[in-house]
Amino acid sequence: MRILIVEDEVTLNKTLAEGLKEFGYQSDISESLKDAQYYLDIRNYDLILVDWMLPDGSGLELVSQVKQDNPKTIVIVLSARDDKESEIEALRAGADDYIRKPFDFDVLVARIEARLRFGGSSIIEIKELIINPEEEKILYKDKEIELKGKPFEVLTHLARHKDQIVSKEQLLDAIWEEPELVTPNVIEVAINQIRQKLDKPLGIQTIETVRRRGYRFCYPRKA
């Protein structure tokens, strides 16, 4: 799971990134709307933590944009505002949750886990194909398909971003903990395993290669 932290308090955003890493989350840090936009242009995120008040505008602007471009991306607003009107405004803007500062880190992690259970990591069901990220299980017409590890994660990530073209770099950033230490060839290996273990035996196509751009989840499409 990759998280984007949009917070202009340097100490806080570094503390959040380090703490989330201990729970297995990969994080990117940005301190403004402009920096956040840079990351959103090159990567896909499962969840975004965004401060309301940023140097170059309101975090709610980012909430609206993210929900328009990627409705399944979970957005949690962090704010020092403790009035109910502000919370209502954030939620109506599209935020999935609202957490008041100062907050307990363990509570924040629990809220993130809860949101991901009902959002980014929920079961994906498309026609006869069911992908269960929680149990790392794939079912096709009630038959379980053996696909584990990175190929499973690649398939799941592409399915979550159905109809979007995802580059090799975006897949590396989203799935590998240290993407700079591996080559893009690992993506080709994972895609090949998906096709050999899932597509070919079942006579379907789940992933198409978009030349020079990346990959796109395309099921249901007959091979």
TrEMBL record:
GO terms for molecular function: phosphorelay response regulator activity; transcription cis-regulatory region binding. The keyword Cell membrane does not apply. Residues 2-116 form the Response regulatory domain. The keyword Cytoplasm does not apply. GO terms for cellular component: cytosol; protein-DNA complex. One of its GO terms (biological process) is regulation of DNA-templated transcription. Residues 121-219 form the OmpR/PhoB-type domain. PANTHER family: REGULATOR OF RPOS. This is Two-component system, OmpR family, response regulator.
